[in-house]
Amino acid sequence: MPFQSQQPSLFDEIFEVTKTEDAARQFLLQNGVLQTTYRCSCSGTMTLHPCAATKSQDLYIFKCSESGCKKTKSIRSGSYLQGSNLPFATIVRLLYCPRTLR
């Protein structure tokens, strides 16, 4: 019988955090790939808020906290994921799967 490690492999961990888009988004936020706040052009602080799928495929956007300012930005703004339409789970798999093949 082959030896099986009790610790999950990197592949198992990546599989776990990419089961859902929400889990993948949380993983990217926790690891600093996505920002938790963003600076608005009015100098206010933008924070993450849930939104409808019709507004953003990511289900979260940055909204300015300054009264009177209604600006919003994509959760991908300011990251190297800006401009990408790939789902977060796919991005995590692309970033980490080559490491699991070593």
List keywords for this structure.
elongated; 102 residues; single chain; alpha+beta; 3 helices; 17% strand
How do the strands and helices of this protein lay out in sequence?
Layout: H1 10-17, H2 21-30, E1 37-39, E2 45-50, E3 60-64, E4 72-74, H3 88-100
Description of the molecule:
The structure is a single chain. This protein is of the alpha+beta class and 102 residues long. It contains three helices and four strands; from the N terminus they run H-H-E-E-E-E-H. A four-stranded antiparallel sheet has the order 1-2-3-4, with no helix packed on it. Helix 1 packs antiparallel against helix 3 (88-100). The two termini are 23 Å apart.
Taking pLDDT < 50 over at least 5 consecutive residues as the criterion, the unreliable ranges are none
Spatial shape: elongated
Spatial strand sequence of the major β-sheet:
1-2-3-4
Mean pLDDT: 85
* Broad structural category: alpha+beta
Q: How many strand segments?
A: 4
State the distance separating the first and last CA atoms.
Answer: 23 Å
What share of residues are in beta strands? 15-25%
Written as H for each helix and E for each strand, in order along the chain, the element string is HHEEEEH
Rounded Rg: 17 Å
Percent range of helical residues = 25-40%
Q: Report the sheet with the most strands, covering strand number, pairing sense and barrel closure.
A: 4 strands, antiparallel
- Multimeric status of the protein: single chain
Number of helices: 3
